[in-house]
Amino acid sequence: YITGQTGSSDFPVVNAMQSQMNGPGDAFISRLDSDDGSLVFSTYFGGNRHEHGGDLIVGSNGDIYLTGATDSADFPTVDPIQSNLTLTICFCYDSFVTRLSGDGSTVLFSTYLGGSQDDKGRAIGLDDDLNIYFAGNTGSDDFPLHNALQATFGGDMYDAFAARIAADGSMLDYSTYLGGEQWDIVNRMAVDGMGNAFVTGFTGSQAYPTTPGSFQPQFAGGINACGQPPFDPLRNCYDVYVTKLAPDGGSFGYSTFIGGGRDEEGRGIAVDAAGNAYVIGYTTSPDFPLQGSPDPGAIIYIAKLDSTGSILEYVLGIESGSANAGHGIAVDSQSDLYVTGALNVPADLFVARIDQAACPDFVAPEGVGVEDLIAVAGHWDQTPADPGWDPQFDLNGDGHINIADIMLTSANWERMCVG
User: Fold this and answer.
1) Pairing of strands 2-6, 26-32
2) Alpha-carbon distance 397 to 142, whole Å?
3) Would you say residue 359 lies in a domain?
4) Can you list the pairs that 152-156 forms with residues at least 24 positions away whose Cβ atoms lie under 8 Å?
5) Rounded-to-integer distance, Cα 170 and Cα 108, Å
6) In angstroms, rounded to a whole number, what is the distance separating the alpha carbons of residues 306 and 287?
7) What is the span of the domain harbouring residue 189?
8) Considering 8, 13, 74, 390, which has the largest number of Cβ atoms within 10 A of its Cβ?
9) pTM greater than 0.90 (yes/no)
10) Is residue 409 part of a domain?
């Protein structure tokens, strides 16, 4: 299942709920068959202006839950908590949350959620009872709040927000700002079975809310040290934040910075059955708490926080001497990690499976077959290092580069421990 934005009037649609683009840019939702990668369904989703699909998740009921952003007054809503756009005259958006039937044919619930300025849903999750958790960024000092831990907008252009909607879509269980005096940006969230919500991203705010006893309660980013004159001359360097909210949203499980003197981001987060949180992203700080001595340049990191948020059990780095970023992470029932990101940007995409039990550090799978394949969708350009859509990548010679070619690469994977 994938979502995003398209401006293409000829975007591939199959069994579509909305077969034509309604505005200059619509969201899309597509499902690919698990066996051959063919489209099971693919549909536009939007009104007469712009939509962005920010994140989606599939529930245990098979339904699809989506969040994103829209500035369309006719965005499709069903039994909404907020039925109308609340924007003033600005080039900005309201966030939305939508539940679709598993076959993509029916909108079961859909609502705006936003204030008078820019609001974007960027991450979504579910608990075992199918309550809906979502998070994003808001520039609105009148963003809709309920049972808020932080009831006032922190400042600058964006605060983070986190919210929960009841499983039947009838009400906001909680909605809160998370932010301080500078930018506070959400990238991803994870939810455990009990309903604890874990949010990560980056912040330049010394006043971002943290908890005593957490791993790093104090901001470490350089003050006014990462600005880019003349546009942003006094920007603080960004720290990663990891925030755990209790199921009712009424308290923090913990909230901590992870960072050094330069910029870093949390790009992805996952939580295992024991409540340990795994965060992936990038850092440019020479004093970032990595194991070993970091090399110059952007380093992909993978960090593990214990269930209390007080102990950073490890931080491992991947560095290749150029621009790097970790983008996504997942954890399975065996605590194996699945990670993706980019090396030597914009050239190389990577996918890795990390067996935490098999090696002291990272280990790839023992014997990789098609059943171990991880497929990643993204976009890339032709570069001198990577020819892009070159015939040499048509491994099975059928004239197309598709999942069948990706499967053939599994024969080249090997088991490897790296330190």
Assistant:
1) antiparallel
2) 57
3) yes
4) 152/177, 153/177, 153/179, 154/179, 154/180, 154/181, 154/184, 154/205, 154/207, 154/208, 155/179, 155/180, 155/181, 155/182, 155/205, 156/181, 156/182, 156/183, 156/204, 156/205
5) 12
6) 21
7) 180-207+216-247+254-419
8) 13
9) no
10) yes
The token pair that represents 347 in the structure block: 């050239």
Helices (H) and strands (E) in the chain, counts: 1, 24
Residue 403 gets which letter from DSSP?
H
User: Does 85 reside within a domain?
Assistant: no
Tokens 């065996």 belong to 334
One pLDDT digit (tens) per residue for the chain, 419 residues: 999 999 999 999 999 999 999 999 999 999 999 999 999 999 999 999 999 999 999 999 999 999 999 999 999 999 999 999 998 778 899 999 999 999 999 999 999 999 999 999 999 999 999 999 999 999 999 999 999 999 999 988 899 999 999 999 999 999 999 999 999 999 999 999 899 999 999 999 999 999 999 999 999 999 999 988 777 778 999 999 999 999 999 999 999 999 999 999 999 999 999 999 999 999 989 899 876 555 556 788 999 999 999 999 888 887 655 667 889 999 999 889 999 988 776 667 888 888 877 544 443 333 333 333 344 444 444 444 444 444 444 444 454 444 444 444 433 444 444 43
Look at the chain and report how many structural domains it folds into: 1
Distance CA 137, CA 54 (A): 11
